[in-house]
Amino acid sequence: MISLLTVYREEEIMKSHLIKPFLDESYPVADYGQGIYLYDKTGKKYIDGSSGAVTANIGHGIPEIADAMKKQAEKVSFVYRSQFTSEPAEKLANKLKDWAPGDVNWTFFVNSGSEATETALKVAIQYWQEKGKPSKIKVLSRWMSYHGITLGSLSMSGHVGRRARFTPLLEDFPSVEPPYCFRCPFKQTHPQCGLMCADELERAILREGADHIAAFIAEPVIGASGGAIVPPPGYYERIKEICDKYDVLFIADEVMTGFGRTGKRFAIDHWAVVPDIIAVGKGLTGGYAPLAATIISDKVLAPVRQGSKIIMSGHTYSANPQATAVGLAVLNYVEKYNLTKRAEKTGDKLMSRLKNLKRHYPIIGDVRGKGLLTGVEFISNVFNHMPFSSEVSVSKKIISKCMDKGLLVYPASAGIEGKAGDAVLIAPPLTIIEEEINDLVTIFEESVKEVQSELQI
Ligand code: PLP
């Protein structure tokens, strides 16, 4: 993908039968991880500056997580979900009840973020069926969003690049502009705009007919398809008001933003709103095991309980004892070390360091985010915020420089030419300390400086 290093010898690449994201690229071979660092087989050290696309929330190589894994493996790693439940799955579901806001109390475990959002879609449809409204089957979403790669979750994703090949198989769910103040789709500024971006949801519902809309899904802070885009104050309150007015469920996709990442338990907690369904993944196990979940409110589960009594979804590995034991250990770790609060504090430090860079480097157009989910967007013109053309792709150049210097940052773009900008996500593990932030920002600054001078700006 982004590595320009050849750490894998040519003949080894030829021998490899592993399909990697880009077939002909060479990738460093991971050897081990420790804290915020990853080490490859050549001994090179990298700061995991985007937590592996914002997953490794508690950092790498933590002995107490390894202990929890071993203990559970020695007891039982797998039971079939229609025959047994298990202690770790029960305990983790109970913990998620405490983590989630309001009446979002019931957990259905799956294996990936895509499955979590796809299950949310199915649960929303099932909810309306049980309530005698079977025509409510569409889930509206925003452009510049990513909800997953399965056909249902991709249908909800406003990510042009990832939809392109499968368009004929996908539903046209994305229909609302993103709350992207830096490039306002309505050419307005907040607060004079009166939250036109939120009101657009009402127009979309009326256009499609409320009788056909089951839910609206959104990432509370837009992650990989925008670069930590934070909606303006009042946005989600207005969104929820519109959803309630038209009997539309609100699904918060917290796959990237959940579990302390933004300085709150869930990113939606930054607004005075309780969603009907929350999809989670990634940080739930911090990358130590594949696990995700759909967390459902009392309101949404009630008609299912009174009706068919079964959620029409599930996988062989749903509620897997091994993975849920890891999830439990990881959330215990987050609580024990107060990582949500720490993310808020260290996030402020990271943000002010990055904002300071913006004053010195004109190619940095915007620095934004919440907690330790930050985005840096690049521009070619400080007056009109014009992005560089996709051929120049400044983010790719910077990612590559950072990688050479031992810092991993992640590209953030929805591939919508003319609308989306060119940004990177900087989102280190929540355990990062101040000196490590200094190292991260130093490497990032050197990379920006070099790319800017290569562009002769
Ligand atoms: N939702 C969001 C907000 C994501 O960022 C992602 C992945 O990046 C997904 C869903 C899909 O998760 P997964 O890759 O685990 O299927």
UniProtKB/TrEMBL annotation:
Entry keyword Transferase: yes
Top-level taxon in the UniProt lineage: Bacteria
Alphabetized GO MF terms: pyridoxal phosphate binding; transaminase activity
CDD domains for the chain: OAT_like
Keywords: Aminotransferase, Pyridoxal phosphate, Transferase
Entry annotated with the keyword Cytoplasm: no
Annotated NCBIfam families: PRK06917.1
Family: Belongs to the class-III pyridoxal-phosphate-dependent aminotransferase family.
The protein, known as: Adenosylmethionine-8-amino-7-oxononanoate aminotransferase
Species this chain originates from: Salipaludibacillus aurantiacus
Lineage: Bacteria, Bacillati, Bacillota, Bacilli, Bacillales
